[in-house]
Amino acid sequence: MHAAHRRYLVFEQGLGAILINFGLNFGIAWAMFRGLSAVPMWGTQSIAGDTIGTSFVLPFLTCLIVTPLVRREVTRGRLPPFERGPADYRLLAWLPNTAFRRALVFGATATALVSPIAILAFLAAGLDGIGPGAFMWIKAAYAGLLAGIVSPLIAARALADTGSQGRAVPNTTR
Question: Where are the domains of the chain?
C-alpha cells in the first residue's frame, strides 16, 4: 500500500470520519431527543432503537458517499490507484462491486455485529434510561467510533476498485 493510501485512510477516512460523524450525530440527537425528559433504553424513540438505526444508516450512507468520492480522487490524480484489484485483498474481495449493494452489506453487517455489542455494553453499564443531554454525547461517540471503523474499510474497497487497471472503474452506484 502506498504511503498516500495509508495517510488517506487514517487521516481523511479515519479521523476525519470520526470528527464529522461525531458532530453530525450530536446534532441529529439534539434534533430528535431534546424535547424528551429521558431517553428510555427500549421503545420507539430509544437508546436501543437509535443504536440499531445508526448502525445501519451510517455505514450505508457512508458507502454511498465515500465510494464515488474515492473514485473521483483517483480519477483527478489526487490519490494513486491501488496496485492490485479487489480480488487480491481477502478482506475486501467478498464485497459486492456496486456501491449500492456494498452499502447494503456494510449496513446489514454493522447492524448484525456492532449494534448488539453496543446494546449489551449499554445494558452492562446499567443504562435503563438517561437524559437527552447525556444521550447526545453517547450517540455522537458511538457514531464517531463506528465511522472510524467502517469509513476506512469502505474507502479501501473503493480504492481496490481502482486497482489492476491503474484507473478508476466506472461509477456503478446502481
Answer: 3-161
The amino acid occupying position 64 is: L
Nearest one of 22, 17, 152, 174 to 99, comparing CA atoms: 174
The DSSP bridge pattern shows strands 129-130 and 39-40 to be antiparallel
Whether the predicted model's global pTM rises above the 0.85 cut = yes
Least confident residue range of 50-64, 81-95, 100-114: 81-95
What's the pLDDT at 84?
64
- The residue assigned the cell 481502482 is 162
**Beta strands of 35-74 (E only): which ranges?**
39-40
Residue 148: other Cβ atoms inside 10 A: 19
Number of CB atoms found within 10 A of residue 78's CB: 10
Q: Look at residue 89 and give its three-state secondary structure.
A: coil
Q: Which residues pair with 40 in a beta bridge?
A: 129
Written as one string, the DSSP assignment of 97-136 is SSHHHHHHHHHHHHHHHHHHHHHHHHHHTT-SEE-HHHHH
User: All 3 cell numbers of residue 74?
Assistant: 483517483
Query: What are the beta bridge partners of residue 130?
Result: 39
Give the residue among 147, 165, 169 at the shortest CA–CA distance from 65: 147
